[in-house]
Design brief:
With about 280 residues, the protein is an alpha+beta fold.
Amino acid sequence: MSSLTLFEEKQVRRAWNQAEEKWYFSIDDVVEVLTGSINVKDYVKKLRKRDPALEAYWGTNCPLVAMPGADGKIRPIRAANTEGLLRLIQSIPSPKAEPFKLWLAKVGYERLEEIENPELAAKRMRQIYEQKGYSEDWIEKRLRGIAVRDELTDEWKKRGVKEQKEFAILTAEISKATFGMTPSEYKAHKSLANPKENLRDHMTDLELIFTMLGEASTTEIAKKRDAQGFQQNKTAAKAGGTVAGNARKELEAQSGTRVSTPDNFKALTEGPPKALPRRKPKAD
């Protein structure tokens, strides 16, 4: 999937890498924006020659990615993901690049602070959600959900589950048993087309609560059964999700409203989120 994004009011080509779940941006487009060079390829060539560290980084981190040219035809374009792009910007001696360099220095400093004092990370996360307009009650549940998720993934690591792909499969098992949908199906249900949109940032309070219940139950079951390896933890994930799924169905039967809704918080601006409409339960 490829598209254009605005960068300093100019268009920069980008393409989504499904396997890595990362955007890749056209290096030539970014360099043109930050330098105003009329010969971008020559500028980049000199930049690499002047910075041996960048040259070494370039070989393995800046692949050719298929993107549309000015004529609309798809061609291989030298590209970098967000990390690579920020590394490139550090080497550009241009006044337009200075704000990015200052921002990187600030982010780096804050990250070091968070390593020394992890409470700062939670505080800054809370501030970000507040600035987006989420309510205090919602933020409390979201942060608690992150803690529950971290406990689960730590347990998976101890029990021989491989990160990335296997984590995603087990998470899908919990979600399917809890809500009757995998995370990708749930995102489609909520009309979240952007791959970088976080599903949990668009969940209601109840959706967050049942997500936590499914993951907390999975952690407890994995511990009690001493689940080892992927297959045993997959069984535990289904069982944990089923605990939450049964509780969800019981609540829907008693309340007459459906927990899972297609509503999202994409239109959230200032102030707390508006109450989302309740929906009648459907048979699973």
